[in-house]
Each structure stands twice: as structure tokens, then as C-alpha cells.
Amino acid sequence: MLITDSEGRFIEFNDAARLMLGYSREEFAKLRFHDIDLDSADEIRERRKRLFESGKASFEAVYRTKQRGSCRVRVFSRTLTAGGRELVHSIWHDIPDPAQAGMEPAEDGAKYRALFEGSPDAIFIADPETGTILDANPAACRLVAREREEIIGLHQSKLHHPRNDQLSRNNFERHVEETSGGGTTHLTRNTIVRPDGTEVPVEILAQTVSINGKKILQGVFRDVTERQRLDEALRTSEAFVKNILETVDEGFIVIDRDYKIVSANRAFLAQVKAPLEEVIGMHCHEVSHRSLKACYERGEDCSVRKTFETGNPHTALHVHYDKNKDPIYTEIKSYPLKDAQGNIVSAIEIINNVTEKKKLEEQLRHSQRMEAIGQLAGGIAHDFNNILTAVTGYGSLMKAKMGRDDPLRDYLDQMLDSAKRAASLTRGLLAFSRKQSISFRPENLNRIIGNVEKFLQRIIGEDINLRVRLAEQDLIVMADSGQIEQVLVNLATNAKDAMPDGGHLTISTDSVELGHDFIKVHGYGQLGSYALIVVSDTGAGIDEKARERIFEPFFTTKDVGKGTGLGLSIVYGIVKQHNGYVTCYSEPGKGTAFRIYLPTVKQQVPRRESDTQPPVKGGKETILIAEDDVTVRALVKEILEQYGYTVIVAVDGEDAINRFAEHQDSINLLILDVIMPKKNGKEVYEAIHKIRPDVEVLFSSGYTADVLSRKGVLEEDRQFIAKPISSMDLLRRVRERLDKRPV
To answer: Could you tell me if 256 and 214 lie in one domain?
Structure first.
């Protein structure tokens, strides 16, 4: 038994093959078939053609031996693939030469007998007409575990397993028919049963010979137990390796020295979207790069070429393309495959599709960029609110002192209106940076949309048809209804701009479950039940580059002066504050759809209480103001003093604690900026609270209440007033805190 490669090199062989030719193991390993095959070149080519076309072949051949000169051999060959290499597995049976063995001349019977008795193979002699066994050599007796006397006279079929009785008879008739002219039959297989019940698988080679003028049927039996075990082990090993390669989700191909693909697994075929028959035999760059030039010819790092040149593994990053020319971002790892002499005959290429990984990396970079922009936006809004506090505060004081007929009153109103728009812009920045104050409560999402529907119709105009399709069941979410309305208003405004000639705007709701598929596609998300809002239009659509930046603040595709670029960034910030997700689906000319996912809760929607503003009142109490911004500090002091309050001011945290210590018995209320030098508002309050636990506090900041609540600064929202501070709102909130004191 031998295994050779496609070029005739002996890869593996057993001792029987080595002894048959008479070479040592070292000599055998250096031989090739053409070194020992004595048949004509045409005949050899014909055999190889039959073998590689059908995958198997049987023939007789004459091979050169070291001692005998030559031997005639019956060969049974089949092709197989192992480790990406095409191999040939062959079984040889030595055929005695009748002329040398003296099978024809009767006087040479003794010579035949000697060969018969000394053969290591089991030989049975049978009557070709009756099938009766006439003789058996010692090897045959050992094979069937019987004495010669027990064997002679038996019908040949009695040697085999009873279940194969008909097979044995059919094979015998075939042997007789095919060897009647003196030829050797094709190989057949059967199973011998020994007296103790042991079953022995055998291969049988039959031949008709003439001994002393009488024709007999000679059957050479060979125990193939070990071969079957090895064959089964080989098949199991091949199946195991193939199963591994077909199971892994990385593309796996084997490439020969001509850069042609000789093997490919299912994952690779899925990547390139091509069947196996279109891949095998193709140059790897034709399949992977969809190019007539190899990657190294185009100046790219070629992993396989480096492996062939150095004999070492190599890694490279490439862009491959599938059958539809769509890009596949891949990480290539190549490893050498060597023959018994250490020569590199092919390379294994493992292709890891990192397209999704690149998408996730891009999503992470986008998220980090958005977070950084959000931090910047929040910081700008905080500082800007201090400026707006001064503008609106002093403007309100000026307006209160003006007569209704004052000619400067119109200018002042324009200034205050501009300040209001600036404050709205600041709220947008805070919403994007997720620092906008939000009051969460259980809300029915369908009711929020129903309440804002008429307002949305006025926004989009009469030439756009608004269609609202709400889910039948209530969708309860923890939300700030005003913020959700803001989301809908911003999306409707965007849709209107995308449909200057009219169209359809559709708002629908539904209940959905977010699963692993959503998380895998988008790279984020939490499993669970969500309320889904879909806002879709039939407008101009958005291209891919714009979609990548659509939620960034100040990014807009509108003409200069027609948009701030904050609408969708505000949407993004509000949805994130609600622990939700927002996605955009759009193509140029095919409209746009925003999908908003908000987690649902199993709670009842509470009844609403009417909101009434108390009248503005002053007082005689003493108030400590701690504010590092000099303009805001002066403004708040002036507003409070005009309404009768006594005001003590501090420029930072430490100054506030010192001033309180000086006047602790007279101070009734603290107004503390949250962010101050030396000590922040929380630290100041904690220090003063230890001195006077009953003192009331009102925090102020360009940041907002939800940020302070998460840090544990506030017990309730009424402890906080957001900048820019309105004069009337400040006076109402001060009065609320003072009136809360124990009587």
C-alpha cells in the first residue's frame, strides 16, 4: 500500500511495498514512479488520464526491483485530497510470472509448489467447475484458522460469512468467467468467518492457471483488516478536518505555487458569492480582488507571496470584492504547506471578513465624536447662559421702568426676542449634550402624538398630507411629553423642507421587541420591549455621506440662513436621554424614515394637575448669593433688592462659607451657583448645612437639574433654577423656597 502525490513522489508506503521492490526506506523515499515504471510513456500517460478523470483506476504494470530486476503488479488506485493536496492511494498485488514459476509445463510443478507453499499471501486452489477447494497453503490455513484437512473438500462459499453466500457464488462465477482465458480478475472483497466466529475482511485476486495440464482456479486472499482500519481512520480524519473547515466562519482556501485555488470552504464561497466550481482552478486575485492583476502587481502587500518567498506565516489587510463587486474588508493570514522534503508546495490562506468590525469601529468613532461634540456644546451652553441671564435680566428691568409710549421700547423688545431665540438655541445645545432638564413620568405615547397632531399639520402646511397611524394598544413609556413633542416637531420641520413641492408625511407607532439581530446590525442596543415611532416622508432623501453626519450639531444640507443644523441633533439628544435609539433610513429620491425606539414600562399614566403661576411677591428676608460670574451676580442682587430683600454676595465657594459664618443668624436663603472656583455649590451647601440644617437653598446653573440629581445634589427639582434666569421666575422661585420654611 502506497500514497503518492500528483507528481509521483512516494509520500507514504508500508513494509510490504518496500519488500516487494527490495529498496530500503531511505531509497524508497527518494524514488518517483517514473524511476521504477518500465511500461511505455504512452501507457503511463493513459493510466494517469483515467485515474484523474474518474478518481480511480485498476491496471497491471511492470516495475523495476532492486534484486529481481522487475516484478509484475496488479494496481488499484484512487485519488484523494488531504491537507489541500491531491494524492493517490494505491494497492499493489504481486503477480507471479507463469513463465518463471513453471505454471504451464507439467515438469515445473514442483517449482510452482514451492512458490505456493512459501507465499506470504493466503492461496486457495479450487475446481473452476464445482467450486470445491482442492488445496490451501499454510498462509491460507492461518487466515481461516483451520487445518488443511478441514479446508480441502469444502465449497469455497463455506469460507465466507453466511450473509454473503449469494455474493460468494456470484463472485466465484465472475472469477471463472473472467479468468477462463488466463487473465486475472478485478479485485473483489468478502468476509472470512473463523471457527470462533471472528470475522476477517479480505480482498481476493483470482487467476486461472494450468498445473500438469489441468486448469485450476487460484485465489489469492489478503487480510485487509488493518487497511480497512487505516482507511476508516483516514476517512474519519478527512471528514473531521473538512467539518472543521466547513464550520468555521472564516474563509479558508488552499493556493498552489501558480496562485491557483485548489480548495475552498463554505465561508469563502459565501464571502465571494460564487459556487465551488467557479472558484477551483482560478487565480486567487481573480476571485478575491476581481482583478486581472495580482495584488502584489498592484503594489499591495500580498500575504501568500510573502509566505512562498520566506516560508513563514504572514498577515495583511486587503479589500476583496464579491461577485457583485461589493467590497469586503478582509484580514488575510497565510501559512505554508510543505512536502516530506520540506519544500513549500502550497499555502493556506485564511480570510477573516472584518467588514462588520470596520463598521463597528466607525460607529464607535462616530459615537466618540458625538460625545466630544456634546461635551463642547454643553460647555458652550453653560457659559452662554450666563451671558443671556445678564441680557434678559437687565433688559427686563429696563422694560419695567419704561413707559408704554417710550420710543426705545420697540428696540428693547427686539433685543429681548433675540435673547429668547438665543436661549432656545442654548436649550438645543443642552438637549444634544444630554444635559437638558427632563421631567420623566409614565406617558401614553399615542396620546402625546394625538395632542400634537394638529400643531404638526400647521407646521408642514396644506400641500403635505399628514397621516397618523397609531398602534391599537397603549404604549406606555417613561418620558417628558414636552421633549417628545419637540422630537416630532423637529422631524416634521425637516420633512417639510425635504418636500418643497408637497408629499406625504406619515407618523406611525407600534410595539416591538429588540433582539440580538438589531444589536448585531447596529452595534448597540439592549434587549427588551420598546415603543416604536416611525416618521417617514416622500421627500428628496439623504445620501450616505450626509447620513453619517446627520445627528451632528450645526451640520445641515440647507442653504445658508435656512437652518441652524440643530434640529436632528436635538432629536438625538432627547432620544438618548430617554434611554432610546434613533436610526435613519434614506436614499436620494426615495424619501427618509426615522425610527425611534423608546423602552416601554408597565405603569399607569397618572392624572395631570393644572399648572398655575403664583403672583410675583417680594419680601424682607436676607439672601446669600454665591456666583462667580460678576454680571450675573450683580443682576440677581439688583432684582432681589428691588423687591425688598437684603442681599449678601460671595464671589466663590470659600467666600460663600465665610460670609455665611459672619451672618448665619440672619440669612434665610442660599442662592448657589453649582460650578464655582475653590468649592462648588454642593460642597458649599453641605458645609453650611452642618452649621444650619434648616437653611433653604436654591441652586442655579447653566447645566441643569437632571445632571445635579444624578450627582445627588438635589432632593427635588424645585431646588434648582436654570440659566438664563428670568426675573419673574427668579422672584417666584425665591418666594417658594422662603415660604417653605417652618413657621
So the answer is: no
